[in-house]
Amino acid sequence: MLRKLYDWVLGLAASDKAPWALAVVSFAESSFFPIPPDVMLAPMVAARPDHAFRYAAICTVASVLGGLLGYAIGVFLGPLAHSILAFFGHANGEAEFRAWFARYGLGVILLKGLTPIPFKLVTISAGLARFDLFTFVWAAIVTRGARFFLEATVLKFYGPAILKEVEKRLTVYVIVGVLVLAAGFAALKVIG
Fold first, then answer.
1. Residue 68 has what pLDDT?
2. Maximum Cα–Cα distance for the chain, whole Å?
3. How far apart are CA 159 and CA 48, in angstroms?
4. Number of compact structural domains in the chain
5. CA trace torsion 66, 68, 70, 72 (10° rounding)
6. What secondary structure letter does DSSP report for 192?
7. pLDDT for position 69
8. Residues of the chain with pLDDT under 50
9. How many beta carbons lie within 10 A of that of residue 173, not counting itself?
C-alpha cells in the first residue's frame, strides 16, 4: 500500500495539476491542514528538477498567504483558534504562545517556521497574541522561503541519488519521518 501511495504522489507530482495542488496544500497547512507541503514538494522536484525553484516559490507564497489566514483565525475566530490548537495538543495554547511571543517575539516565527513543528501553530498563536502583522509577514516570508528553497536546492542537485535511496528503503524512511514529526510535537510540548 505504501508503494502505491508513493507512486501516486510521484505521478501527481509530474502532472500539470501538481503546482495547483502544491499551492493548496501549502496554503492550508499554514492555517488548519495537518499535512506539510514537503510531501508534495519533494516528489515534484524529483520529477522536475528544472522547476525546483518555481515550486519552492509556490510553497513560500502559498504558505505565507495561508499564514495570514491562520493569523486571522487567531485574531477574529478565537473559539476556532482554540479548537485547532487543542487538536494539535495545545488546549491551553493561547496563554502558552502569548508567553512565547512575549519572551522570544520574532524568534518564535523565524525558528519554528524552519522546523517540522506545524506552522499553523505559529500563525494562529501570532494572531491570538496580536503579534505585529508587518513583522509577522516578513518573518514568515524569510523563514518559509528559507525552508522551501533549501529543500528544493538539495533535491535539485542531489534528488536522483536521494530518490534512489528512498525507493530502496521507503518503509524505513516513512517510519523515520513519522518519528521526527512525533519528536517535533513532543519537543513543542516540553518547551511549551
1. 97
2. 47
3. 10
4. 1
5. -140
6. -
7. 96
8. none
9. 15
